[in-house]
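It is worth pausing here to work through a concrete case rather than discussing structure prediction in the abstract. The textbook approach is simple: state the sequence, then state the predicted structure, then interpret. We follow exactly that order.
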Amino acid sequence: MYTTKCARPIVAVFLAAVLFLHGCGAAKKQILPASLREPKIGLVLGGGASRGFAHVGVLRALEQEKIPIDLIVGTSVGSLIGAIYAANPNSFELEWMAFELEKDDIFDFSLLSSRTGPIKGDKLEKFVVKHVKTRNIEDMKIPFYAVACDLNTGEPVVFDKGPAEIAVRASSSIPGVFTPLNIKDRIVVDGGVNGSVSPETARQKGADIVIVVNIGKSIINYETGNIVQITLQAIDIMGYRIDQYKNKDADVLIQPEVGNVGTMDFSKKKELMLAGITAGQAAIPAIKKAIEDFKAGRLGRN
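Step two, the predicted structure:
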């Protein structure tokens, strides 16, 4: 077989075209290295009942510094604050709502106490319907996940779609305090049973950088009160111990100085929000460093 002098240039051009097209195809399949994309930042908001006002301050600080939030994971009160913000990412509106919030707006104590809990949870659902501007979780502006717990198995239950009010109520149904929910033959209670924060959920949902806001308090100076306060304190103790382990999975840990504010104390809103702002601002350098480290390939987990 032979090639004429006239045909040789044509063959060369053909081969060059094939190689070029092959190279283009390979480029399409190439995955961008970390340095060529922004990290996906997950914000984890922990439980702590009335101390959740500190979350509002943290969100204010992050928003002021233009720290992007790509997904939010909330447990208990963290699910309430997280759902409101994920549906409408505006810390100023969130702050106004928080200042107006009173205990009676979300706690409906029953005179005829249920054997499963004196608080029904209907008021909490109505509050969520009123203040969460997007009804279904999957339609929120920021991807949102509410974490609850299966009372029979102890496994976490993550709500990533459906009505926000059901997810928040489930995530906030403290055993012995709130009447638990039966969802698809599962008895679902407060996610704080497995710890008040859930950084592992943020990782599973694709977060490259996980910021954990832990509003738990040290177990000191507790005065025994009624059965609700005792139960809340028991959950606090359990969550505090578990969180000491879970906090290690955070790239950035924010712990507002909540002092000894009780779980049902709504009189310290301003102080808690200011504590959140202060803690959030203090964490900004660490967050920016984590972003830089990710882009430089220095931040990674096995």
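Step three, interpretation. The first strand starts at residue 41 and ends at 45. Confidence is low (pLDDT under 50) at residues 1-21, 25-30.
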